[in-house]
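$ ./design --mode recover --in tokens.txt
reading tokens...
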């Protein structure tokens, strides 16, 4: 069989013998130029087919065509296990982002709208009279030309104050008055150098002259002097007098300089964390946090500087620019040279782009930037660039993201928001003849927003593209031209094509778990809402778009918080509530605090956001508040499902208790891949090593010594129930649940993971590979495996996102048992089937961003459904039928 496409006119994509992961040697034919939806329970093999096989093969062929010499790269990227694929067009994949994201990228940069805005300011901005004209890069804080000279484009300055560095001024320097100094030998050395420089380190800090204190803390000088080790000032003087040979020579560094240099340069996370505690962050006094140089900020468009414009919600930005374009076009029509000016400005833009990009200026026509503020040239630039901006903003707003601003940084976006932004950007890229492979584009979307999403997908299809979409939304399934149901179960119990054909035909397929959800029959049982055990009154809550909101939340029941995307659900449930309840109840547990803070978080890029509000009500029954969100559970591959839940500790103990391990003296630590001892020394327990490739991005490849097992062969000689420790890590949660039969401490963690729909994860699956929803469910399982005392308030953010209906039903059933045990659950939820199963519903809205942020309606599901107000009512009504 050949993997080459023999006929470019073939109308189908044909797959023969796909065996990637759990796929059971499947054959499949799906149409091109159609919306093909892949369904199935979590772990059934949808992604292995859509991404692991179809997209991977398309990518492999692409790599082969652009870089035939890069065989090695292709080998490492992995060749999908499939006999042949024919008819597959070039593919573009949009997967949910996993793991961390850069704080430096923003909505503006990932959509490339920012560069258009900078061009607009450069060419069409209003300049003060005496202000020289600027290039597009002058409006970017990420360039040397544009950055504020004071804060280098960061917008904040780090201050290191005496208060922080010297928390207890009654101590002497020898008694470690300067808390920010390094510990151990370097601290001693700095002290000895101070003595050598003639400072007394044995008087209380507060009794040193201010001049001395200031020099020690703030000097930028770095004197290098001979030192007598461990002496007092009088002893040192005597030693010099007596001509005693110095112990060594050392350099002094001011305490502030030490903190700043270490923070900026250290590669060690713990060092960085240590010095970070001595830093305070203040907005830059020159740019006031706007990050740009004063000249750039003096240029305005419609009365706003570029930083202010970047903070506008995109919907508002679009209106503002549309109006400017209209006015500019109107003014242009009044001039005789309008048409000419428009042609001319297009030509000049092209030239200036070249000049801006560093090219030569010799070809430049008269520079539009040197023309007066209301010149024809500027009007034309406004009309042209403005129209382009409005055009590119439209699909983003249509996808329900009009509440975002250009300046919003990517770490504050949900995975779904990020994916929809990328989708909207694709829409204006005018590609055709490609297949888009998408991973749950409906994630985070309210049913009302799903309608808009379907419109966008239809648009891509009309332009001659194919869409392969992995989805859990029944609305998207019903809209599909072709449905591929994989299953019936997860892992070994899945991996077969249960159905492939037009959606209607699924109705006949009894084996399909999906069928009952598309055509009715399956679902959560009808329930009578529980009676609240009490109420919490939240008053004057202010956070993001929530402005002075008052909300009553019932205790001892299951509350679903719903509303369109951007209405403020997360702001309430993941941000305001944990913080406000934390003030009342000291023991708020942030699940992610279990892991040490990661270095990125220490960049302190985000100012603490405003939060106001009070909580009243009877909290006597609530002893713990547990907030479980979708933040990653760790950003290193060293953290995995087994280590995070703690079950790996028990497993390692089992291995250490075997007779062979005892005989060899192996302790539980021997079976860890995170510490030296039993792990593979070559890859330090990572299982993979990085290979640098000339001209190409580096890739990870299996460690040649341990072959990816992470362990030394001697460690793998220890066998428990016929398996070595690496084989255990390779098991899925479900396999492990069978394997560890009777081992109750281990079974409890595994059962909790299965309850939250994660039975398909491998125990050793690195945390970095988990989606936001999976990470949240791992945290939830970790929490559920504890003994329940019925006194906990759980705050969850879209716990069912990324789950097949059947999996989310199981999760919801579990949440119900938590509530039956006396706990309270408050969950953001968008699946109206789940909302219908809640006891209480809070519908936020009515719209997104500034158009939302209020409680539109609340009550039992039936009350909200029949309220006739809010975006959720009609969908909830349908779900209650
Ligand atoms: P779905 O997309 O339907 O949730 P997946 O295709 O992700 O399912 O997973 C199908 C099966 O393949 C599961 O049993 C999963 O554990 C396994 N699997 C997924 N990724 C890998 C991998 N990188 N290595 C080994 N097994 C994997
Ligand atoms: P939902 O959860 O309903 O989709 P969010 O609570 O995420 O909505 O967002 C509500 C509003 O608050 C939006 O206008 C959003 O842009 C804004 N917002 C949310 N998080 C942040 C943040 N970290 N910084 C600034 N604005 C934010
Ligand atoms: Zn500044
Ligand atoms: Zn190794």
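writing sequence...
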């Amino acid at each position: 069989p050949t993997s080459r496409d023999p006929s470019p006119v073939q109308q189908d994509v044909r797959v023969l013998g796909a065996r990637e992961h759990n796929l059971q040697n499947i054959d499949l034919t799906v149409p091109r130029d159609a919306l093909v939806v892949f369904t199935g329970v979590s772990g059934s093999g949808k992604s292995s087919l859509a991404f692991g096989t179809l997209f991977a093969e398309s990518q492999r062929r692409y790599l082969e065509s652009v870089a035939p010499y890069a065989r090695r790269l292709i080998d490492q990227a992995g060749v999908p296990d499939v006999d042949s694929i024919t008819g597959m067009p070039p593919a573009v994949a949009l997967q949910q982002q996993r793991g961390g994201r850069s704080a430096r990228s923003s909505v503006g940069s990932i959509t490339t709208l920012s560069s258009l805005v900078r061009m607009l300011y450069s060419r069409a901005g209003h300049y003060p009279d005496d202000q020289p004209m600027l290039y597009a890069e002058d409006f970017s804080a990420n360039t040397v030309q544009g950055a504020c000279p004071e804060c280098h484009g960061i917008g904040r300055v780090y201050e290191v104050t005496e208060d922080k560095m010297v928390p207890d001024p009654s101590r002497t320097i020898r008694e470690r008055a300067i808390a920010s100094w390094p510990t151990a030998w370097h601290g001693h050395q700095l002290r000895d150098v101070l003595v050598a420089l003639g400072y007394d380190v044995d008087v209380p800090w507060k009794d040193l002259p201010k001049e001395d204190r200031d020099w020690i803390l703030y000097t930028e000088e770095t004197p290098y002097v001979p030192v007598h080790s461990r002496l007092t000032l009088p002893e040192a003087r005597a030693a010099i007098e007596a001509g005693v040979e110095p112990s060594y020579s050392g350099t002094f560094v001011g305490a502030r300089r030490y903190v700043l240099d270490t923070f900026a340069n250290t590669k060690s996370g713990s060092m960085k964390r240590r010095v970070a505690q001595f830093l305070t962050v203040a907005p830059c006094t020159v740019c006031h946090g706007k990050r740009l140089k004063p000249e750039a900020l003096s240029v305005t468009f419609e009365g706003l500087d570029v930083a202010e414009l970047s903070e506008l919600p995109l919907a508002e930005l679009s209106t503002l620019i549309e109006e400017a374009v209209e006015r500019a076009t109107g003014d242009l029509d009044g001039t005789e040279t309008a048409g000419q000016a428009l042609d001319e400005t297009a030509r000049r833009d092209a030239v200036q782009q070249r000049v801006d990009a560093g090219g030569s200026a010799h070809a430049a026509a008269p520079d539009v930037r040197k023309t007066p503020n209301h010149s024809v040239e500027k009007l034309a630039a406004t009309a042209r660039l403005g129209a382009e901006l409005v055009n590119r903003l439209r699909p983003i707003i249509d996808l329900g993201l009009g509440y975002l601003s250009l300046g919003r940084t990517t770490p504050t976006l949900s995975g779904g928001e990020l994916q929809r932004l990328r989708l909207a950007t694709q829409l204006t890229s005018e590609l055709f003849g490609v297949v888009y492979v998408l991973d749950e584009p409906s994630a985070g979307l309210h049913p009302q927003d799903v309608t808009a999403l379907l419109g966008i997908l239809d648009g891509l299809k009309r332009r001659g593209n194919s869409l392969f979409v992995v989805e859990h939304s029944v609305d998207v399934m019903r809209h599909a031209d072709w449905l591929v149901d994989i299953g019936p179960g997860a892992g070994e119990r899945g991996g077969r094509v249960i159905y492939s054909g037009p959606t209607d035909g699924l109705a006949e397929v009894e084996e399909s778990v999906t069928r009952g959800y598309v055509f009715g029959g399956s679902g959560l049982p009808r329930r009578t809402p529980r009676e609240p055990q009490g109420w919490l009154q939240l008053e004057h809550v202010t956070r993001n778009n929530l402005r002075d909101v008052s909300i009553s939340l019932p205790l001892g029941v299951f509350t679903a918080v719903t509303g369109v995307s951007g209405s403020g659900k997360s702001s309430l449930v993941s941000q305001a509530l944990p913080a406000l309840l934390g003030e009342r109840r000291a023991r708020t547990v942030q699940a992610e605090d279990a892991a040490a803070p990661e270095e990125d978080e220490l960049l302190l890029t985000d100012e603490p956001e405003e939060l106001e509000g009070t909580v009243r009500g009877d909290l006597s029954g609530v002893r713990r508040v547990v907030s479980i969100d979708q933040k990653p559970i760790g950003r290193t591959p060293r953290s995995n499902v087994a280590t995070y839940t703690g079950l790996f500790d028990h497993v390692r103990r089992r291995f250490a208790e075997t007779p062979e391990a005892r005989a060899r003296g192996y302790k539980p630590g021997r079976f860890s891949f995170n510490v030296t001892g039993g792990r593979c020394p070559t890859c330090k327990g990572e299982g993979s090593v990085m290979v640098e490739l000339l001209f190409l991005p580096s890739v990870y490849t299996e460690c040649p010594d341990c072959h990816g097992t992470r362990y030394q062969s001697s460690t793998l000689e220890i066998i428990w129930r016929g398996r070595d420790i690496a084989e255990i890590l390779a098991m899925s949660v479900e396999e492990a649940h069978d394997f560890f039969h009777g081992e109750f401490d281990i079974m409890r963690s595994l059962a909790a993971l299965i309850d939250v729909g994660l039975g398909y994860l491998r125990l050793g699956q690195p945390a970095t590979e988990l989606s936001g929803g999976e990470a949240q469910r791992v945290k939830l399982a970790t929490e559920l495996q504890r003994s329940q005392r019925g006194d906990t308030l759980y705050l969850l953010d879209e716990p069912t996102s990324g789950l097949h209906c059947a999996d989310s039903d199981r999760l919801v059933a579990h949440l119900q048992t938590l509530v039956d045990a006396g706990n309270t659950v408050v969950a953001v939820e968008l699946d109206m089937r789940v909302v219908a199963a809640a006891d209480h519903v809070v519908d936020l809205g009515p719209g997104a961003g500034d158009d939302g942020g209020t409680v539109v309606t609340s009550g039992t599901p039936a009350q909200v459904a029949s309220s006739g107000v809010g975006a959720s009512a009609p969908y909830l009504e349908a779900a209650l039928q």
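exit 0
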